[in-house]
Every structure is written in structure tokens, then in C-alpha cells.
Write a structure and sequence with these properties.
By secondary structure, the chain is α/β, with parallel strands linked by helices. It is built from 14 helices and 17 strands. The protein has a seven-stranded mixed β-sheet, with helices on both faces. β5, α4 and β6 (about 140) form a beta-alpha-beta unit. The protein is globular and about 65 Å long. The structure holds zinc ion (ZN). Zinc ion (ZN) binds near residues 4, 7, 45, 46 and 48.
């Protein structure tokens, strides 16, 4: 039996999605691909929300088709964080480590700004070359306590350790916290960003649920992880990333710093909406099932009028939603996405060809279903021409609707 990834407690079911293909499994040719069970659960003891199905990690992360540098919104977030770091006294003597450094975009900016030592860790083989070309020292591996011991021998301690959008992806987040605790200098900061369960629950963002995302974190879950690993949450920010995320500033347990008052106000917010309540968590199931029905009906009503629909965004979220709602070739013509790594390939299980957004033409498309809704403003700006010529966008969340 699988147990809670934070406290080893017993898991209770919220919703079983059946079998789903991996959302990153884009293929050059249409063929039947493997599907894996997917279900959302919560821990009986600590209430942490998580999926039960843990796949071999190389299946998910060895060849990773998501590049930090592609989205403008993402680059803006990085710039905003770097400005914060300036105020936080990062300087040329600072030592910085990033866990899951992806294509090195963030570390490259940091080094450019502060001229300090940076080290990246990322398991993706396909991103190795990009990091080499950018001259970002990167260990091609998964981060855990064991690797942190090796890093400590060679590089000693770090003043700042970043883990942006990574703890939700690992089967045992305690390993990341243990490793960070081991490498953090006495007054060092462990800065972590994670999509906030509060928004996922409040805005019904169930497209976040797929095999790569194992845990859905509340602030309480981060505090629990800190307590288990001799760390302490010092401050919190709510940021826009990924439909609403937590940015946590974490220090060693005995660091001489007060904890911010914001922490309690966010915990109250979480409690009020029901994130620590079994019945409320179980009610997520009906919210999801109703949304699937509503979105399908909206699309089918458009198809009855003989209008043509394509999709914008081949992100993991989008691929999850397409499968949950069974959005296939009968309903949509193409998927558009900027990623060169995905262009020309087919979406997993739903088998729709991915094209360059440059090919978006309002004469051939009446509606674009926006599955990268988290960067909506960026895409609406980019597709001004499509809108000007009568094209319309459909936004799936919080409620499916056509934008006017
Ligand atoms: Zn638990």
C-alpha cells in the first residue's frame, strides 16, 4: 500500500481518473501508447493532497520537453525574483545552488547580475547541451540527501538554494528538504516555489493533476516538511506563477530571524476554504466532474454550429485536460505551441498534430481553446491579429467561457 509522501499516513481517495498517458509523451507518429492509472488522494493524518501512482522517474524526467526560457511570463517572473534578491543582499561572494535548474535560464541571469558562483542540478539529458553552451556548471542528476553529501564535499555550503517548481514532482519531498538543510549556510535561505493547493482547489484547476505532479502543496504541508527536517518557514509570498503559487523563504530551524505574520494569515485562509477538512477535500471530485461536463458541452455546442476549433498550448496541463475531457480529432483540428521540441509531433493519446503559432489563421480557425490559460495575457497579446479578424478564445477556468 502506498502511504503519504510527507508523513507516511494512510491515503484516502478523492477521485480516480482511470488510465492516462504521460502528458510529456509527444510522438512523431500516431501510435498506441501506454496509459497509467491516476488517482487523487489525501492523507488521513496530515491532509496532504497527492497522487498515489508513483512511476519510475526516468520515464518522466530524463527527456524533459519543458524549457524555462520559452515563456515570456516565466522570464518576467525570474526578473522579478532577481530584483528581490538584490534587496536581499545577494552579491558576488554569494554561493547559489538551484535544484532542477532546467535549461539554466535562471542561473545565467543570476550570474550575469551578481557575478557570483552558481551551480545547477537537473536530471534531463536533453538539456545538458544547452547548459554546457551557456557555461552553467550543472550536475546531471536528481537531488537528494545522498547527492547533497557529495556536493558538500566538493563545494561546501550555499547561501541561497532555489527549488522552483520541483518539490511537487518528487516522490519523497523530505529528500529535497534534507539535502537543502545539509547544504545551507547558518543564515542561508532556501527559497522554494510551488503551485498553491489553495488556488487549485478554489479555482478547480484539476488540469494540474498528472503523473509528473505528485503532490499538491498547502502552506501547512511546507511547514510540516520543515518541521520534519530541522528547517523553519520565515516568510511567504503569493506569486502569480502557475495559476497562483507559494514562494517560501526557509531557513535553518535556529536561524536568528522572526517568522512573518503573513504565515498565519495564509494558514487561516487555507483552513477556511477547507484544505484540512476531509469532507471538503472529498467534495473536489464533484467539482471536477461538473467542470468536465461543462467544458465538453461548450465545445460540442460550437461543433454543432459547424465551427472550427483548435487548441493553444501543449503544456502538461493542457495534455491532462484534453485526456480528462476526451478532446480528440473529432472536436479539434490542431494544437499550437511555441516549443520547437514539440512542433510536428502528436499529442499523447489524443493524437492531434502540434503546429507553430505562426500558422494561426482566423480564416481556418473560429475558436482557440486556451489550455495555457496561466499565461493568458501573454497569448492574447501575441494573437491580437487572430482576435482582430474575428477569432475567439475559449478559456477553460475557473468556468469554461468564450472571451469577448
Ligand atoms: Zn501525511
Amino acid at each position: 500500500m502506498t502511504c503519504c509522501r510527507i508523513c507516511r499516513g494512510k491515503l484516502n481517495l478523492i477521485i480516480d481518473f482511470g488510465k492516462i498517458s504521460l502528458v510529456g509523451n509527444f510522438l512523431k507518429q500516431i501510435k498506441r501508447i501506454k496509459r497509467y492509472n491516476l488517482s487523487l488522494n489525501y492523507c488521513n493524518d496530515c491532509k496532504h493532497v497527492q497522487i498515489k501512482e508513483i512511476l519510475k522517474r526516468d520515464l518522466l524526467f530524463k527527456n524533459y520537453l519543458w524549457e524555462t526560457g520559452i515563456s515570456k511570463s516565466n522570464i518576467n517572473l525570474i526578473n522579478e525574483l532577481i530584483n528581490k534578491l538584490k534587496k536581499n543582499r545577494v552579491n558576488k561572494n554569494s554561493k547559489i545552488l538551484e535544484i532542477a535548474s532546467n535549461d539554466g535560464s535562471f542561473l545565467k541571469k543570476i550570474r550575469g547580475k551578481f557575478k557570483c558562483f552558481v551551480l545547477g542540478i537537473d536530471p534531463a539529458k536533453n538539456l545538458k547541451k544547452i547548459n554546457k553552451n551557456r557555461d552553467i556548471l550543472t550536475l546531471n542528476n536528481y537531488f537528494d540527501k545522498k547527492l547533497s553529501l557529495k556536493i558538500k564535499k566538493k563545494f561546501e555550503l550555499f547561501d541561497y538554494i532555489f527549488a522552483r517548481n520541483v518539490i511537487a514532482h518528487v516522490p519523497d519531498p523530505n529528500e529535497i528538504f534534507k539535502g537543502a538543510q545539509n547544504l545551507l549556510s547558518e543564515d542561508g535561505l532556501f527559497i522554494l516555489e510551488v503551485p498553491h493547493l489553495f488556488n487549485i482547489f478554489k479555482n478547480n484547476q484539476y488540469d494540474n493533476i498528472f503523473h509528473e505532479h505528485i503532490g499538491f502543496h498547502s502552506l501547512k504541508s511546507i511547514i510540516d516538511l520543515c518541521a520534519l527536517n530541522n528547517l523553519r518557514v520565515l516568510d511567504i509570498e503569493l506569486i502569480k506563477s502557475q495559476g497562483g503559487s507559494l514562494r517560501c523563504y526557509i531557513g535553518k530551524k535556529n536561524i536568528k530571524k522572526k517568522s512573518s505574520k503573513r504565515i498565519n494569515s495564509i494558514l487561516n485562509m487555507e483552513q477556511k476554504i477547507g484544505l484540512y477538512n476531509s469532507k471538503k477535500l472529498e467534495s473536489f471530485k464533484n467539482k471536477i466532474l461538473n467542470h468536465i461536463q461543462e467544458l465538453k458541452k461548450l465545445i460540442e455546442d460550437i461543433k454543432i454550429k459547424k465551427k472550427r476549433i483548435s487548441i493553444y498550448g501543449a503544456s502538461g496541463k493542457g495534455q491532462a485536460l484534453m485526456q480528462f475531457c476526451n478532446i480528440n480529432k473529432k472536436l479539434v483540428d490542431n494544437v499550437f505551441d511555441k516549443s520547437k521540441l514539440k512542433k510536428g509531433k502528436f499529442t499523447p493519446s489524443t493524437n492531434i498534430k502540434i503546429k507553430d503559432p505562426k500558422e494561426i489563421n482566423s480564416k481556418k480557425i473560429d475558436y482557440l481553446l486556451l489550455l495555457s490559460w496561466n499565461i493568458k495575457e501573454e497569448i492574447l497579446k501575441q494573437e491580437k491579429k487572430f482576435i482582430k479578424h474575428g477569432g475567439k478564445f475559449i478559456v477553460p477556468f475557473p468556468k469554461p467561457r468564450i472571451l469577448n
